[in-house]
Amino acid sequence: MSESRQPKSVDLIENYSEVEGFPKPSAEVRCALYSPNGEVFAYTQPSKIVLVTTKDGTPSNEVVAEVDVKEAYDLHFSPNGRFLAIWTRPVLVDRESGVWSDNIHVFDSEANKVVASWSNKHQGGWQPQFTQDSRIMAKNFHNKEIHFFEVSEAFDIKKPTYKFKLQDSGATFQNFQISPGKNPAVAIFIPEKGGKPAQVLIYNVPSFNQPICSKTFFKAEKCQLKWNALGTALLALASTDHDTSNKSYYGETNLYLLGIAGSYERIDLKREGPIHDITWSPSAREFAVSYGYMPSETTFFDARGNSIHSLPTAPRNTIIYSPHGRFVLVAGFGNLQGTVDVYDRQNKFSKVCTFEASNTSVCEWSPCGRFILTATTSPRLRVDNGLKVWHASGQLVYFREYPELFSITWKPQPLDKFPGLRQLEACPEPQQSAKDYLAKRAASRGSATAKPAGAYRPPHARNSGAAATSTSLYQKEMQSSFGSAGNGARKTVPGMVPGAAPPQQKESKTAAKNRKKREAKKAEDSVSPAPESAAASSPAPDTGVVGGVVSLEEKKIRSLLKKLRAIETLKMKQASGDQLEDTQVSKINKEGDIRKELSDLGWTE
Asked: pTM of the full predicted structure?
């Protein structure tokens, strides 16, 4: 089952058909999502939030609760779905004192009431965090403290059960992340400030006297924290917006691996450039990194940070493991073409398939690990919105268009509901919608291939039926001066009577002699047959130019050949005993690389 949100509607789709009886919204929907266990589905309305049961074996038409909170913009569930956190638009209550209304509310679905409220003007990072069993909730307090609460039907948001506070009163943390697992820990990132290095601290909850692991480093304005599924190791992706060495426009990125046992490692990557994506395997025993300038490289590491395997370089920036960890999806989305590769992790990373999913803004594995959902959503793209479901073998099985689609996701389901795959099953019969879409795409590609491009014709000449001819500026000047075939206009001589014949120009002796020679030659050519044109008998050499425009490969080859010529000149200078600079010697040393690149482009000497 999947969910799709549109401006004023929400669809629940099961077995490629809409769920009957689902209580659809009647007004604008700003947010809609499933609880992490998939048992509750919530969506917003201007005056309330509606919670619908989606538990397996029950019809999805029962409204569990309606929360009387107006103008909700964002929602966040606890892991077991019991608590729903709601973010609403903040309202300034008193301008003089700067007091804002409580705009974050925590709803307890078991008690059917709001159990806590507080104020947070910023929508970024507003979500409270919960431990895996949802017994403890944590919230940020002015980026100086983290307040922990043992949640119940009646807990006081002003009286935290546990409290973490930074020892340095002048410091602030930027973000924190609670680990999954039975023994929760919390990772906290403190950015560098005033010459002091950045820090990542890990504490056991609720023991905050001494960190169980810490790492300090420079070049860290922001840091993304990612725990593995067991909560035993953490990936910290530190980044800066500016590269002090001026090597990269995108700033600098560094990756660190920290363990709850106190160990830490800096992950050394083979290539320079930004880190595009990091992700843990569901098994928690390995992780993958996409990094480097395009075409990027994707490398897999074990839990200790040792390199296991690297994929061939390609324009990719996204890595997604299937729920069982059997398959790995590596794709190039965003400003890339949308090519998707699927690899079999348990079969020595052999490639399963490659398919194209251009303009993708959402990509998810199904809970069973057999299908892939891709979608184009607003506001990233406001055209061609819709969803596609692919089999893991790369075949399209379902397609649906939407005028405007804001979000879409699979319904979360427990992993033990689906047995692991020993081998990939055969693709089921595609739905008619997928067949129609593929047929339409094939027809459009065929017509585009069959129709020649032709020469460019200006707009005023496209419907005239006349052949497209190019007219140079010189020809236009001549036509305007000596008469146009279209209107019979003539050149006007100043002082001449309008309508009178132009005066005869007296021909010089040299001009008359040349004219007679041309006429004699013309008469001779008309009597004797012209020989066959050499251009017609021999094919034109292939210049590598398509449609009058030099191809990218041709441009690259020309550039490389220019470099080779420069290197030959430098080698001659070197042979004659001239003293070369270091940069010139460096250019000579690159000759082998340039010749290899030329060979890869198909150029031969």
From this structure: 0.70
